[in-house]
Amino acid sequence: MSRAWAIDAFGIDRLRLGDRPTPEPGPGQAVVRVRAASLNYRDLLMVRGEYDPRVRLPLVPCSDAAGEVVAVGAGVDRLRPGDRVCPLFSQAWVTGPPADAHLKATLGGPRDGALAEHLLVEAAAAVHVPAHLSDVEAATLPCAAVTAWRALVTGGGVAPGHTVLVIGTGGVSLFALQIARGLGARVVVVSGSDEKLERARALGAAHVVNRLALPKWGRAVREWAGSGVDHVVEVGGAGSLDESLQAVRVGGTVSIIGVLAGAVGPVNLNRVLMRSVRLQGVFVGSGDDFDALNGFLAANPSIRPVVDRVFPFESAAAAFAHLAAQGHFGKVVVAGAP
Q1: Where in the chain is the domain with CATH 3.40.50.720?
Q2: Residue 182: C-alpha distances to residues 185, 245, 291, 303 (Å)
Q3: Where are the alpha helices (DSSP H) in the chain?
Q4: E-strand stretches of the chain
Q5: In terms of CATH architecture, what is 156-281?
């Protein structure tokens, strides 16, 4: 038997730790002993029933993990027991552009996720992690880091000399800050906390803006950048998009990644139209994106995931409560079972 956290009804208080049969790999599959799992905002919404109220329950939450392969099924030759790997967020998206089928194969809903001692994955949908990262650090990569990479590199073409605007200081935002700096771009960070902004400076932000002190910050960012920023990593959604459109240059790109400040709201589309702004939605990325990211991280070992706090496996519910309080800086991680 193997232990796993699951919800049988929506709510953090409905997370239960229990026993499940240890998975056995079928053809083309592998079983991973989970050494660490990280939490995303999506996981919190899923547990609360705010992401997909029709998802099948009981559900094991969390999509992001790092661990050790302990068994492989027939026909698997790219993974061996003992390999350190991370699963792909979508177990069906190994290569190519996004497709409808990829949305139906995501871990942590609708598929059971990584908050367990053992995780069954498709062998083609697991990537080897950079050797210099710990299990806790590697567990933060599958969603937050891959999303930032796909936004800035796969779909953004960020290059030396570009200017990138990052909203907030959560997992995606801090990965975007570090990746953009590693690519030779200047970065401006907008947040509501002076303390977090100073920590963003320490990570390489060239300029910071407190959105509470300056609610209409878009024009100020645009003026700081000269004629506007080249790329915006937008995690606020409708609540901050209008300011992001003020900040971006003519012909620039805004990557829509999150909806922390609301999914629905008024947006001035004239700014998109008249200034030829490209809006792109980014829903994590493929196995190819993950492999490219890992190559970049291996070549730039000074870039390390920012981990806010690590909770013991038995305290997973407390980890979700900590994420919900929104006081974190970087990623919240649950350690693997001892």
Answers
A1: 156-281
A2: 7, 25, 17, 8
A3: 41-48, 100-103, 135-138, 146-149, 171-182, 194-202, 218-225, 238-247, 269-274, 287-299, 316-324
A4: 2-7, 15-20, 29-39, 64-72, 84-87, 118-122, 126-128, 163-167, 186-191, 207-210, 229-234, 248-256, 278-281, 307-311, 331-335
A5: 3-Layer(aba) Sandwich (3.40)
pLDDT digits (tens, 9 = 90+) for 261-271: 445 567 778 78
Q: Could you read off the pLDDT of 199-225 as tens digits, one per residue?
A: 999 999 999 999 999 999 999 999 999
Q: How sure is the predictor about 338, in pLDDT bands with cuts at 50, 70 and 90?
A: confident
Which candidate, 147, 63, 146, 144, places its Cα nearest to that of 110? 63
Name the pTM for this structure.
0.95
Superfamily for domain range 2-142+286-335: Medium-chain alcohol dehydrogenases, catalytic domain (3.90.180.10)
